[in-house]
Amino acid sequence: MKHGQISSKELSEFIRERATIEEAYSRSMTKLAKTASNCSQLGTFAPMWDVFKQSTEKLAACHMELVRKLQELIKEVQKYVEEQAKNHKKTKEEVASTLEAVQNIQSVSQALQKSKENYISKTLEQERMRKEGATQKDLDKAGLKVKKATETYKSYVEKYATAKTEFEQRMTETSQKFQGIEEEHVLRMQEIIHSYCQSVEETHIQIGEGQEEFVKNMENTSVESLIQKLAESKGTGKERPGNTDFVCGVFCVFLQNVPQLDEEGFCIRPENSFYSSSDSEDEDEPRKFHVQIKPVQTNNGTHQHKATIDELKASIGNISLSPTPAVRDASHQHAVTNYSLCFTTFILFYLSSNSRLSNNDLLSLDPFGPTSTGSSSSLPHSSVPPPNRPTTPLGTATIIPPPRPLSRPKLPAGKLTGINEAGRPFSPSKMSNSSPPPAAPLARAESSSSLSSNTSLSTSNTPTVGTSRGPSPVTLASLDALPIAVAFTESVNAYFKGADPSKCIVKITGDMTLSFPSGIIKIFTSSPSPAVLSFKLSNTSRLEQIMPNQQLLHSDSSQSDTNTKDFWLNMPALTAYLRKSSEQNPAASYYNVDILKYQVCSNGIQSTPLNLVVYWKCTSSTTDLRVDYRYNPEAMQPPAALTNVQVLVPVSGDVTNMQSIPNAIWNAEQSKSLWKLSDISDKSENEGSGSLRAKFELSDGPSIPATLAVQFFSEGSTLSGVDVELVGSGYRLSLNKKRFATGRYMADC
Prior knowledge:
Elements: H1 2-37, H2 46-94, H3 96-132, H4 136-220, H5 223-234, H6 252-255, E1 266-268, E2 288-290, H7 309-318, H8 330-353, E3 482-497, E4 505-517, H9 519-526, E5 534-538, E6 543-548, E7 553-555, E8 564-569, H10 571-584, E9 590-600, E10 610-618, E11 622-631, E12 643-650, E13 655-661, E14 665-667, E15 672-677, E16 689-698, E17 708-715, E18 723-727, E19 731-748
Parallel strand pairs: 3-19
Antiparallel strand pairs: 1-2, 3-4, 4-9, 5-8, 5-18, 6-9, 7-8, 10-11, 11-16, 12-15, 12-17, 13-16, 14-15, 17-19
Helix pairs in contact: 1-2, 2-4, 3-4
């Protein structure tokens, strides 16, 4: 029975070791899949990397599923070990009488053997005395001894018979019970092994299916299909463009030959100008355009070779064509329009070609990044439309709103449940000469929008507005898809209690914000029915609660797909709000609007990006502290580095000296120690796992173990994995920013 318990524990350890190996292999395959994602996406072979990535991710998922099954099996084995120990203890009590029978027959057997030897000895002594002719008196004494030995011998024979009967009965019953226990033990072990084999077999089947799918995908990917994909992704269209009207040479100053100028610096109009001579009051005098491009002033300041959007917008606003008589020719009007577009394109091209102007354009807007008042705006090179881009206006006839349900249900207002999201300063106020990190690292210094992690995540019906970073770069009116920026901000709150993962409490909340350029307001107000802005949220099955802005947002509650959810904006209400915001903040270049807030379904400690365990050892003179942490990439979508990691620990008992690894900062006024760590990720040492250790010498100990707090944030990832996709035409997603940070992130021993 003891060996049965040993075998059960050894089997549990064997399965645990197999699970560890499988988990390590799965993580390695996940890293390999990331490597495939980072491979070159150019050329005809680029689609093949997607096949490699998907196949490798499926293989990693198969092994991770096996890990999950093995962990469940380990729990079953542990449960059986506990049941086995209880059964053995109960059996030991039940067979106590058998132990007494065994001890009884052993003692009776020994006594029987001694009485037998004594009987034989006395009998032989009596016979010897008879042969030697001993006296009658001696013979009588010997006879009495033989008689007594005979009676003793007979009594032990009877006792042995009784003890033997009881022993055989007890031993038979006990042996049958032992055999039943062992049979049950072997059967349970066989069941465990069968479950183990079945889990491994299912994994191998899944791996085989994944390999077959990979082979089929490779076989179905022909040379022609790869060439076709490249042509579709890089092509400019299947129809040849029509003839192009001649436009003014203003733009050509930079891209083509410099036009001829007269002695006054005016551009000499070619004879075949698109201006009809009959439309001019002075038919004999050619029309002139004066183009003057001032050189950039050189200086050594921070504004060297740098032009602001304000300056360029002012320049554009001051440019106007000379007054002309009424246009009677359609080609004439088309040419005038082309001139305006040509000059606007030149301005945009100038911005994009200046590599220093890359920090403040709405099309490349970073809603989370810090800004300063008066910073310049620019347009990224990748966002500039090419010269041959179609300029057909998006009139009301071309805007087709997405289908909507017959009725738009009113969504109830409410607040997300969970830990209070109010931010708090993390580092001590008086610690060193270095300035402490901000209380809300996600917030703009000058913005009142929900991009700040310091604001409450409860539902708000009042949208918020970002302040100005310069004039809006959207100057092409409705000639292009309108740029919309999206930001997801999430806050993770966690409380770790000891080393027990089941005691970890986790709450994750987030919000979604849309950012509109100020130039879009004119487009909305000038159109009687602007295109309805619709979008689709994906991975919504991971959300426990969604609270949309009831004033601006509508959704279809009858959707059957639990993993996606469609929304569309109330365009009149949005237009009215943006107009009002523009009147209140005329200098703003964009406006942030809170669209919806949500709460994420959490899975305990598995949903935390950084696992924590804290240990205290307190004596009257010293306090030993150890904080173990482990990076958890599975909690993020996709995994991203944790930056600005700080750990704050209060220590009582009048600390006189502190020794720490790595080095920490001690604040004597607040009696707190602070660790500032570098970025933590799966590429860090030990894959993001480590320990913080400190020894405190006390003058008034012992210390009382306190709750420690942790701060960090991460860019380019969320904990929910929620994403957005614009639906319909008329708009384009110029930026999709994601970030999460800690709210109340604490640990106790």
